[in-house]
Amino acid sequence: MSQQRHGVTPGNAPGDRAGAVPAFPDLPEATIARLPEYLRALHNLGDAAADTISSEGLAAAAGVNSAKLRKDLSHLGSYGTRGVGYDVTLLIEQIEYVLGLDQRRAVCLVGLGNLGHALAGYDGFASRGFKIVALFDADASKVGELIQGLEVRHIEDLGRVAVEENIAIGVIATPALAAQAVADVLVDAGVTSILNFAPCVLSVPANVDVRKVDLAIELQILSFHEHRKASLTALPGGRSAASAGNQEAVGS
Amino acid sequence: MSQQRHGVTPGNAPGDRAGAVPAFPDLPEATIARLPEYLRALHNLGDAAADTISSEGLAAAAGVNSAKLRKDLSHLGSYGTRGVGYDVTLLIEQIEYVLGLDQRRAVCLVGLGNLGHALAGYDGFASRGFKIVALFDADASKVGELIQGLEVRHIEDLGRVAVEENIAIGVIATPALAAQAVADVLVDAGVTSILNFAPCVLSVPANVDVRKVDLAIELQILSFHEHRKASLTALPGGRSAASAGNQEAVGS
DNA sequence: AGGCGCTTGTGAAGGCGTGCACAAATCGCG
DNA sequence: CGCGATTTGTGCACGCCTTCACAAGCGCCT
Ligand SMILES: NC(=O)c1ccc[n+]([C@@H]2O[C@H](COP(=O)([O-])OP(=O)(O)OC[C@H]3O[C@@H](n4cnc5c(N)ncnc54)[C@H](O)[C@@H]3O)[C@@H](O)[C@H]2O)c1
Ligand SMILES: NC(=O)c1ccc[n+]([C@@H]2O[C@H](COP(=O)([O-])OP(=O)(O)OC[C@H]3O[C@@H](n4cnc5c(N)ncnc54)[C@H](O)[C@@H]3O)[C@@H](O)[C@H]2O)c1
């Protein structure tokens, strides 16, 4: 439980720049969370623009400060060219390598209700190198159903299938009450990353990563800012304020 | 654009503790983001447990450090009792007041495709004081459709309906290409908080708060940690590490 | 009434992240 | 070939957040 902040100290063989990207930097978490945004911006720009981009330009496209962007990229030893900018293609390759997107990762989805159906039909998975290879549900009436060409299997088969398909990432879209049980099954099956949509805290071993997406929390944070804004408009210097949390709003 | 970090300095009338909760603390953003989690934990516990709870107990239920929890609660001037703990009912009231959940907030949802349908059918909105009062789509074949008893309207009606229903929060579930245009319409209609599911950066005036939920980013962050873990198992002291970003994993 | 155990609230310290400001590097052009 | 324009990479300072550690406060039991 104690947060051994991934004390990596990677075994970078001293002379291992055999043409490839450096071995493995231990990036700040804040940087990691932004890399996917840079990647998306690069893909959007790459379609129709020049083959290099300045930190200023990319930062604008990704909605961040340019100094932050440069520092982020410098962390992964990126090779920009002073006076010119970053090579778009090279940068995409680097970020994808660091994020491990060059290897296709098998994903399974548990819980095919309302939300699960939407997720199963989402093309944003495949377009980013993730492939949903299996669907699971506990409801016998759903087992066997075909969704996007994939058959819904019973959750009891998860252990077997996870090994067969080498599933690394599990997505939980069951009710909160079932989520912990599902997480346990996933962990037993060797899954080491979980994306949890159920509004609850999951307990997992230290080597398993959990991220959660909680709609209600997002709305409540917005609600707070609404509340605050409302209390401000009643004040003399009723200025408007910005930014909901880390997720900064970009001025128009 | 410059990040005026909501420089509030609220005009707290010096002697305004007229029986209610203190006027308006400017809470750290990190605290605000955790309050909903405490609230959920309290609701779960409140159902079947005692009428007070210790910081240790609540922290465990919310998956955080107990010192952090105490500091968070102290920020909103919470009245715990030393030697005893926090009064569950009172604490719920306080947090709900601060988050502005005592006032029902009207929400509209734009884009009723795959994801939009799931969101429209989600009961987690209503159970937290949010009410979806209108659905909008640009697709004429969808306009008129009834979803959960609500009729899908054309996006051109958004301006009018938003004023009628006093909509404060808009949820965007359209393709990324349409998201900016939808955001503009929402802003014009007076909406001041936006929850964006489309994978893109939105430009909005400084007084509008935007939060985004991006599935692909979450998966890519998990992918990074998978990548890192894989590179560690190949090392001599192949220890396992924990925590995916801020969203800490709880040890089993 | 007094003491004891428990729990809150907070001062202080350290770590992390951000953003400024500038030196170093590169390109293009005269 | 040299110079200026441009842009990267980063040292530094500042502020936010987290965590520890402990004094102050509260209730209960004797
Ligand atoms: N619908 C949304 O828009 C939305 C949004 C955010 C979060 N969520 C959360 O996502 C989760 C799912 O929401 P939903 O609306 O799809 O609910 P749902 O009830 O429609 O679907 C839940 C599915 O999980 C299956 N399930 C139940 N127990 C299971 C188990 N032990 N193993 C495997 N499958 C099991 C059920 O059979 C059902 O198919 C909930 O926790 C909800 O709070 C939903
Ligand atoms: N489906 C998922 O699980 C999922 C998950 C995460 C993010 N997303 C994102 O959410 C968004 C919606 O995903 P989806 O799968 O529901 O897509 P979808 O194509 O099924 O639905 C999009 C809907 O938006 C409507 N629309 C298009 N332009 C519009 C406009 N200008 N105004 C109003 N409505 C408009 C369309 O008519 C359609 O009904 C996408 O940006 C997607 O990337 C989806």
UniProtKB/TrEMBL annotation, chains A, B:
It comes from the Bacteria. InterPro entries: CoA-bd, NAD(P)-bd_dom_sf, Rex_actinobacterial-type, Rex_DNA-bd_C_dom, Tscrpt_rep_Rex, WH-like_DNA-bd_sf, WH_DNA-bd_sf. Keywords: Cytoplasm, DNA-binding, NAD, Repressor, Transcription, Transcription regulation. Homodimer. It is found in: Cytoplasm. NAD(+) binds at G111, L112, G113, N114, L115, G116. Residues 100-201 form the CoA-binding domain. Pfam families: CoA_binding, Put_DNA-bind_N. Residues 1-20 are annotated as: Disordered. Modulates transcription in response to changes in cellular NADH/NAD(+) redox state. Its main location: cytoplasm. Residues 37-76 bind DNA. This is Redox-sensing transcriptional repressor Rex. Belongs to the transcriptional regulatory Rex family. It comes from Paractinoplanes bogorensis.
